Amino acid sequence: MGTLRDLQYALQEKIEELRQRDALIDELELELDQKDELIQKLQNELDKYRSVIRPATQQAQKQSASTLQGEPRTKRQAISAEPTAFDIQDLSHVTLPFYPKSPQSKDLIKEAILDNDFMKNLELSQIQEIVDCMYPVEYGKDSCIIKEGDVGSLVYVMEDGKVEVTKEGVKLCTMGPGKVFGELAILYNCTRTATVKTLVNVKLWAIDRQCFQTIMMRTGLIKHTEYMEFLKSVPTFQSLPEEILSKLADVLEESLHQI
Ligand code: CMP
User: Fold this and answer.
1) Dist. CA 166–CA 163, nearest whole Å
2) For a 10 Å CB count at each end of the chain, is N or C smaller?
3) Which of 143, 154, 107, 149 is nearest to 128 (CA)?
């Protein structure tokens, strides 16, 4: 009898052990899924960086080859929102369009921008202006929103729906609400790096290149003017020519130190 009870006890113990192992396996599987998701997300980010960095590297190689052959240097590839020949007077007169939207939509756009590696470092005032300028766009199921290789003019934030991103016919990922896409061609002044198609009906917010660049340049030029004024107020720099001060202002970085 004692042996039967012992066996029953041992069996109960084994069952409990198995139950605990099953629970651990479930937990580890969940962790694995989360890690797979993270790897996929990082892989996508890496692919995105590669697709904008490669053209720049190729350009640099072409550049050094042409420089070696005595051809004049062309300007380096840059994020297209860098201030160019405009001055602050031109841009301060530009009135940006304003499209009213619900507080939820405003939050969704802001969060989408802050979640995007290429846009999250924008200043909050710039993000606010982008939010205000974005207008609604809708596409039906199976529509092509962006075609790889095309010249791009719009950046989108998805409010509702699902899209698929492919490159050279290979699926890269799917994207749902709260995601930015179409930013690379505008930020890096390159052609569309991938194709984006709808899997269901989608609701998007869009901003065009011109508005986007006005927002970027205006902030850049305001900062440049502020930095110039600051540099001119520093006695050591007072004798420097305007041109040199302007170059210094281009590379000046603000840093906060608490005393
Ligand atoms: P853009 O190149 O303007 O147009 C295609 C868009 O697809 C691109 O901007 C990105 O927003 C998006 N995209 C490109 N490559 C990837 C990727 N590997 N993962 C997710 N999205 C991508």
Assistant:
1) 10
2) C
3) 107
Q: How far apart are the first and last CA of the chain?
A: 80
Measured from the CB, is residue 165 less than 6 Å from ligand 1?
Answer: yes
| CA proximity to 40, closest of 212, 221, 194, 175 | 175
Q: What are 188-236's pLDDT values in tens digits?
A: 999 999 999 999 999 999 999 999 999 988 888 888 899 999 999 999 9
Residue-averaged pLDDT of the chain? 87
Between 220 and 103, whose confidence is greater? 103
Check if 134 has its Cβ closer than 6 Å to any atom of ligand 1.
Answer: no
Q: 163 CB under 6 A from ligand 1?
A: no
CA–CA dist 156, 197 (Å, integer): 13
Mutate to test the pocket of ligand 1, among 42, 162, 165 (most ligand atoms within 8 A of CB): 165
